[in-house]
Amino acid sequence: MTKMIFVNLPVRDLAKSTAFYEAVGGTKNPQYSDETASCMVFSETIYAMLLTHDKYKSFTERPIADAKKSSAVLIALTVENRADVDNIVDQAAKTGGSADPNPKQDHGFMYGRSFEDPDGHVWELIWMAGAPAN
Fold first, then answer.
1. Given its phi and psi angles, is residue 112 left (phi above 0), alpha (psi -120 to 50 degrees) or beta?
2. What tens digit of pLDDT does each residue of 76-110 get?
3. CA atoms of 97 and 133, how far apart (whole Å)
4. Which end of the chain has the smaller Cβ count within 10 Å, N or C?
């Protein structure tokens, strides 16, 4: 069985967050989405579950962190080329996120930038020379 990853993110405005993640390359899977959650597909094995705060609280008793003030996780995705890194970060900035909350990385063989979603969750996009295609 192929392993899959589901990144669960608490969001304040489900519709706004869904539109944001569609703009940066995710596709909403209606089979696993409802008025409390949007399942955003990035590949056959990578999914982001956008959950309203009430839905997120049903999975944990811990308080929801304010991702704009603290960091609990850094999420990194590979992309096909350097241009994809720039294009997706630029699209994130145009659709309610912000570009480059962390320093750009350019080591020649590896290039990366990050974006912050409307709720403050930081995603890194990385291109690596010689990496398998997505």
1. beta
2. 999 999 999 999 999 999 999 999 999 999 999 99
3. 26
4. N
Q: How far is CA 39 from CA 7, 47, 126, in A?
A: 10, 7, 23
Contact 97, 11 (CB under 8 A): no
For the chain of 134 residues, list the mean pLDDT of each consecutive stretch of 10. Answer: 92 98 98 98 97 96 93 91 97 97 95 97 94 60
The CATH H-level superfamily of 5-59+73-128 is 2,3-Dihydroxybiphenyl 1,2-Dioxygenase, domain 1 (3.10.180.10)
Give 27's strand partners: 41
Three-state SS at 9? strand
Place of tokens 């991702």: 67
